[in-house]
């Protein structure tokens, strides 16, 4: 009995509770049996196209039913999904597709123009519409799952500015679902609303949970507050995952309270203001403030509402299977209330990056984020990893934007920082140093950025300086820039 | 991040939710923090007595608060608990203590006489009262758990009649809790009533679950139906584990229905009559009929109440992380509805027996029980493993009783079978063949049995025959005996 072998998640769920509703998308409603049959058929179509268990398959898609079916088809085959942020530019997409050695790209008509440009740079790439079905070959089904096998790859930038593919195994996803259930509980009638992207861990993790838990996933392809509130009522939603900007809109739109069937608003993807958390409390919106990242396969630290008044602003404690600690400059664990770098450990934590080796040597993943743990074990996050800017739930690494800026002819140096913004939490702004006598306007610079960077990464403003403040070892003094 | 390393269960729970009630026993009520502190202190007392992480520590105890504390103290040290059925005779106990190479025995005054006799046979055994505390040494705490490490040993007999120590690792127990939560769910206010022995997997698994789930364990040291019903009301019990005899008494005593907070009656430990299940349904008692054994670290197959009317008599489907199949004489999987031997697989299944190697070669544990799986995947158990008799939730292996009978001077041959009994489900009855001209009464035979066998194993009747019916290969034809 190898403890790291389990039955295929969806196949097993379809066998256990075939008639429960698995997913609702717009006017479509599939049971677990139907979802499995659709995914199995899609696995046959992908097999006919040459996708095997060795393949890394890119996904450039929106969040809808056919994306879910295609993602689950990959699990049947045992192929790996490389989930691409659909807001990236062609250059960014090509970098990730090449880095992950992707041979197949699943996409849809709305991305035709982008795909045409990608094909220009990657002529051998096999691009498939996610609903196309020219031929079918009986798939070789993975009836059992090895938890150590790779399930998904999601890119994250890190401090160097070069995106790295985070390897998420079936085990990482499985243990994440277990950590979550021991904190949030599981009710027979639970229904989870997903209006966050499936290409992010926030969305993909909901998909895994709905299958493992056997609960209904209600999928929205974008966030629209009126539709969300109607869905919560109509579909008897009990849990929803949100980022701060969504919570902000929901709190504003909720007049008195949410329906009594609603029991958990899982808040992730960056800081929330105490003011917002307080207003949610007043309206009885049960916020579970959490901390997590792509490398931890979603939340790893979560505050339960029983502490929402006494520990406001804290992300809570580590989920049951995980551990957290705060380390100082020398790598030693700090005492209670002493800030330092947040390090995490657990079976939900990724073992490393694609083609780049392990993410850590001692088993502890050093997040780069700064925080402290109080005497009762509650984590408070002070600063996101090395100047990470979080805008509407998307991560922006200054180094990546700075790389684009300094590559522009006539720019000598650049620094990017986050500026507080009521709607998005933060937005990036740039400081640049021009060569003498060079004519370079803010508009020109931003136009170049828009070609190279996903829209959300493009600075909202450009300030011209004579010098970027740096310390002795030439690190940008971002605090100084912010002031 | 080794996926098979987790924080110590109790220490972690005490850190996560220190103030939740962990356990209620009579008029005592401890939070998780208090329970951890008590267990930690006890770990120090055991350490002072010489117990290390290498030790196998026997438990000859009743189910009460101090048993729980001592068991959890062993988890802090990393020592292994050998859980002894306290109804066994001295000979049976000594066999198991020797087999497990037990150096320490935790016990209590009510077993003084038995312990004195054990010491007569095992002079080197270190016998400790579970509440004694002569000295204290700071324990070396296992802050993390390796799931592959042994947690408990529980003896089961098997067809040869020689008891074997089932190795249950921390991982087996962990995965059992995960399989259960995905089937039964987890509510914030759950409270689990335990009136089954802690030395059985049925009781020990409740202890593990209450810690991992962070829910209240209400412990009774024996089953008394009036007290049970009062506790369900007063402690707002939501889940209770029962064997058929208990369910029988509860069903009789419940006048109209159980309180609305009660949501799951987990029935294990042998067959239940359709009549009883029907009567429970009439009174709204939500029975989850299950199948499991010591080797599967409690339930592995469980029927959800949503199928209680359509699949009455079935044990349901395998828990999410586990698999079941039916195999024929040649070891091949049978088709739907074709009976054969039940084989099980999963991370909750024991890897083997103490000092006796693996329980199976192909990873599948062959239970010896006979059953079939219908076309929808529901398991129906037809016959328990090789003539196993289940009496009030206790397993009786005919071969073991037959061994005692044939060792009696003047008995040539013997056969033991189960006889249906309204109160106990089954009781053992014996058939013996005496030597010619030997004077041997039923009373004499039973008196000898009482010295050698736990009371529940002693035959209720002895029939004298001239010959035990056997087949060509000399196997007893038990069906013939039953008729």
Topology:
The structure is a homodimer of 483-residue chains.
Chain A lengths: L4 E3 L1 H8 L4 E5 L2 E4 H17 L7 E5 L4 H13 L2 E4 L6 H10 L4 E4 L4 H10 L4 E4 L14 E3 L3 E7 L7 E6 H15 L6 E4 L6 H13 L2 E4 L5 H10 L4 E4 L1 H10 L10 E4 L6 H9 L4 E7 L4 E5 L14 E2 L4 E5 L12 E6 L19 E9 L5 E5 L5 E3 L2 E3 L1 H9 L4 E11 L3 E10 L7 H11 L9 E3 L13 H5 L1
Parallel strand pairs in A: 2-12, 4-5, 4-6, 5-9, 6-7, 11-12, 11-13, 13-14, 14-15, 25-26
Antiparallel strand pairs in A: 1-8, 2-3, 9-10, 15-16, 16-17, 18-19, 19-20, 20-21, 22-23, 24-25
Helix pairs in contact in A: 1-2, 2-3, 4-5, 6-7, 8-9
Key features of this structure:
13 helices; Rossmann fold; alpha/beta; nine-stranded mixed β-sheet; 27% strand; homodimer; 483 residues; GMP Synthetase, Chain A, domain 3
